[in-house]
Design goal:
CATH topology of the domain at 496-523 and 634-750 in chain B: Rossmann fold
Radius of gyration of chain B: 33 Å
Largest interface: A-B, 32 and 43 residues
Number of helices of chain B: 26
Helix content of chain A: 55-70%
CATH superfamily of the domain at 496-523 and 634-750 in chain B: HAD superfamily/HAD-like
Structural class of chain A: mainly alpha
Order of helices and strands of chain A: HHH
Helix content of chain B: 40-55%
Number of strands of chain A: 0
Distance between the termini of chain B: 37 Å
Oligomer: heterodimer
Strand content of chain A: under 5%
Number of domains of chain A: 1
Largest sheet of chain A: none
Strand content of chain B: 15-25%
Number of helices of chain A: 3
Chain lengths: ~60, ~800
């Protein structure tokens, strides 16, 4: 019978991990704008991340 | 397919059609604005183009990549954002700062496509001072981090305006601060309740299957305690969504709908804990977490609001944040709430007059369409009065305020507290049901408990708690929440957005429907221009278009768009006689255009009925005929009106003159109720009177002139042609081209109410059967545990299928 309890704890533990993942995703704002990223992924020519520009600004 | 670079180099004209502005696509009326061989209509568009081009964002002009791009005509007005230099005002807009780095959230209502997103997020290419831009597409807003040593807030806002994304900076946000972002709280609660509910169900399953047989004692103990532990977050965290409003209600002295729910949750939990700890049974943790989970879903469905729409705008949304005020001989921007009677302020063209005032200098051409619905410009001279809400169209105007902002004619319409009364009344109705329900349940529970206390004391407590658990009004709440939630979803797919689900019941049974005319029944954008007289030839048409192009009068603008069939020609000896008409020479012909009084002839057609919408024409001293301009009625709107007229008292309430009365009567039948020349305050009064004789008054209107009436009615519906435009405070916002489907929307709401009634009867039978066994203390834990989630699930399925069926049937 012990095995059932072990399995039970394991399954609840795994489910809790997923719950944690969900809360993390919510907290980090991944559900704030569900439309934008769908468009953003199609920017193909790298015009967006010109990191040198941004670094320059951060330093000033 | 061409790549971006190919597109621009192979075809230097781009998609610029001859005579059209390369940036905004409007006709080029004044040549001289060119760059890279492309033509622009004005300096603003030219500048925007050069900015975008220099930032290397040519894709913005690629029609292959941006088929649906609507670019805005750029109007540059250098002094417009000067007030942002004021430290006090700027500090209210800037949300966070760390050294020179500042953060702002700006609403950019013009965001509409992927290219907007891309251009805005490349803003650092335009100006080194911009560090990072994060666009929230759903909210149509952007989070901007910028370095204030390189770019000031004013310059940032101007940059955005230059490329066509003018931020919405309004007094409303200035004075209240932005509303807290939509609460994620409910989603956390929902997630946790779902997790716990699922696991508790898993643990309860053996119990259900075992039936009367005992499951292994050792395992049973484990299951019970695990369920208890899992139910703790549900009870102490997720259930707060019901406890808090219930307690808040009790503190203010009334019982609301959350009270019986809270009571049921509390009773279930306490009894279950007692059962488990003292070994009486396995408890009802599954039912409790099920109730909480399903009700939270319902709440979530109802609370899905439309974050880019606002239903609470008042006059302050329409007004600028600050206005140039004369302080010590200089015009300095001053925040609107700080304006006092007697202040001397300067109104730029395009700005709205913030308070009633007297003109000191300059000539006003004021567009009061916001306030009255009439589109003709009103001329005001020195010493005359101007009213708040009017928009100055041409020159600078210097005025002295005679009232404070809050006390002006227009704003006083808003401050009538009608709004608060309404939401209170609505709450009361729902709370009354909650109160009766709660007392009813408690009464039944006490009677059962007393009965058993005399007959078989051991069963007394059992019966008491079982009644509380079983009689939880969650069936009613879940039914209402799910049905309304689904209907809201269907409606918003059809561009009809409701403030909240509470107003659906009002929409379902409109006792009286009041329509505004201009902008509501008629389209704001479409005009019908007809010429009465012998047909004009092409040459004359072009000459008249060229002539009227020189005038800013709205009727002239309509004539231009109606008649223009080629490049405009030169006009000599142009003369404008304000308020009367214009004259000028095109080629060898001399034209006169204007009102009837402007024509030097007698015996012209009577204009009594159509005042303001006719333009008379004479060529070389000979009368030719007149143009007649009418707003075009929205397609299908009159049929809808006829349909609605059968079930509800329908009234047309217009600020306009009665020139359309005969046409409307012929279309809608002679019994159609119509009132014309209604001032905003009269509209308000009319709605007030109507409310006394009719239940559920529906008011449909647009613009500020209907604002008072919209908030006075039981259900105010604001019509807008562009959803990102400002709409007055209302209970619903509908896109203009969907308005003719209103009868279908009403039918759907009606069916929804019927569905709720049917499902509720079903679940009431369910619950009554449960109570019957509960009062007899015969309800086994197993049955109770199965009944609760099962009834919730069946309700969800029935409501979903029902709403789906009705909306398909209505083709929504």
């Amino acid at each position: 019978m012990g095995i059932i309890i072990l399995l039970l704890l394991a399954s609840i533990g795994i489910a809790a991990l997923f719950l944690g993942g969900f809360i993390w995703a919510l907290k980090s704002g991944q559900y704030d704008d569900v439309e934008g990223p769908a468009h953003r992924i199609l920017f193909d020519d790298g015009t967006i991340d010109e990191t040198d520009d941004r670094d320059g600004n951060n330093n000033t | 397919m061409k790549t971006e670079v190919d597109f621009l180099s192979e075809n230097p004209q781009g998609h610029s059609v001859d005579g059209e502005c390369f940036h905004c696509g409007e006709p080029v009326e004044e040549s001289g604005h060119t760059s890279d061989g492309r033509e622009f209509c004005c300096n603003g568009c030219l500048m925007a183009y050069q900015l975008i081009r220099s930032a290397g964002l040519d894709f913005f002009y690629d029609p292959n990549k941006n088929p649906d791009l609507r670019r805005k005509k750029i109007a540059l007005d250098n002094g417009k954002f000067d007030y942002l230099d004021d430290v006090d005002i700027a500090s209210r807009i800037i949300k966070y700062e760390e050294g020179p780095l500042k953060q702002v959230w700006l609403d950019l209502p013009d965001i509409h496509c992927a290219s907007c997103l891309r251009v805005l997020e490349s803003l650092h290419r335009f100006d080194k001072g911009v560090v990072k831009v994060n666009v929230n597409f759903e909210r149509k807003s952007a989070h901007i981090l910028f370095n204030a040593e390189i770019i000031s807030l004013k310059e940032l806002v101007r940059l955005l305006a230059t490329i066509g994304y003018e931020p919405r900076l309004t007094l409303e946000e200035y004075s209240e601060g932005k509303k807290a972002k939509g609460s994620k709280d409910l989603v956390y609660k929902l997630g946790i309740a779902g997790f716990c509910f699922g696991n508790i169900m898993l643990l309860s399953l053996p119990d259900y299957l075992a039936g009367s047989r005992e499951i292994e004692a050792n395992l049973g103990e484990w299951f019970k305690y695990l369920s208890l532990i899992l139910s703790l977050p549900v009870f102490f965290y997720s259930s707060n969504a019901f406890f808090k409003p219930a307690i808040a209600g009790l503190k203010r002295g009334y019982v609301n709908m959350d009270a019986p729910v809270s009571l049921a949750i509390l009773a279930t939990f306490v009894r279950s804990v007692v059962d488990v700890l003292f070994g009486f049974g396995t408890g009802y943790f599954d039912s409790m977490s099920g109730i909480v989970f399903f009700m939270l879903i319902g709440r979530y469905l109802q609370s899905r609001t439309h974050s880019s729409l606002s239903f609470d705008r008042d006059f302050r949304s329409y007004f600028p944040i600050a206005i140039d005020t004369l302080i010590k001989g200089e015009f300095i921007p001053k925040a609107l709430p700080e304006l006092k009677t007697g202040d001397i302020v300067r109104i730029r063209p395009g700005e709205i007059i913030p308070a009633d005032a007297i003109v000191l200098e300059g000539e006003g051409r004021i567009d009061y369409s916001f306030v009255t619905g009439e589109s003709a410009l009103i001329k005001v001279k020195q010493g005359e009065k101007v009213y708040s809400g009017g928009r100055q169209t041409r020159n600078l105007l210097i005025i002295r305020l005679s009232h404070e902002v809050e006390q002006s004619y227009l704003t006083s319409l808003w401050n009538k507290e009608t709004f608060k009364q309404k939401s209170k009344a609505r709450l009361e109705r729902f709370d009354r049901i909650g109160r009766d329900f709660t007392w009813g349940v408690i009464a039944v529970a006490i009677i059962a408990a007393i009965y058993w206390a005399f007959n078989e004391p051991a069963k007394s407590l059992d019966a008491f708690t079982a009644v509380l658990i079983i009689a939880c009004p969650c069936a009613l709440l879940v039914t209402v929440a799910y049905t309304h939630g689904h209907i809201l979803g269907v409606l918003s797919r059809n561009n009809f957005y409701l403030r909240d689900s509470g107003v659906l019941a009002t929409l379902a049974q409109p006792g009286a429907i009041v329509w505004d005319k201009t902008g509501t029944l008629t389209s704001q954008q479409k005009f019908k221009t007809r010429f009465h007289g012998p047909p004009l030839d092409q040459e004359d048409k072009l000459a008249i278009a060229s002539l009227s192009d020189l005038s800013m009068h709205p009727l002239s603008r309509m004539l231009v768009s109606h008649l223009k069939n080629g490049r405009l020609i030169e006009v000599s000896d142009f003369e404008e006689n304000p308020g009367k008409g214009i004259s000028g020479k095109c080629g060898s012909n001399f034209f006169l255009l204007g009102s009837r009084a402007f024509m030097p002839f007698n015996g012209l057609p009577d204009e009594e009925e159509k005042e303001g919408s006719r333009v008379y024409l004479a060529k070389n001293g000979e009368y030719l005929g007149y143009f007649e301009m009418n707003h075009e009625y929205r397609t299908g709107i009159l049929e809808s009106l006829k349909k609605l007229k059968k079930t509800a008292r329908t009234v047309i309430l217009s600020g306009d003159n009665p020139s359309e009365a005969t046409y409307l009567k012929s279309e809608l039948g002679s019994d159609m109720e119509m009132r014309f020349n209604q001032l905003p305050s009269e509209k308000l009064k009319f709605i007030g009177k109507l409310k006394k004789s009719h239940k559920n008054t529906l008011m449909i209107g647009d613009g500020l002139n209907d604002a008072g009436a919209l908030s006075q009615s039981d259900f105010g519906l604001a019509v807008t042609d562009q959803l990102n435009n400002f709409t007055p405070a209302s209970d619903g916002i509908i896109q203009g081209d969907q308005l003719n489907r209103l009868p279908d929307f009403v039918t759907l709401a009606k069916k929804g109410q019927k569905l709720i009634a049917a499902v509720f009867t079903y679940s009431a039978i369910y619950n009554l059967a449960g109570i019957y066994f509960a009062v007899r203390a015969e309800l086994s834990p197993m049955i109770a545990a199965i009944i609760m989630p099962l009834s919730s699930i069946s309700i969800i399925l029935i409501t979903f299928a029902g709403v789906y069926y009705f909306s398909k049937k209505l083709k929504l």
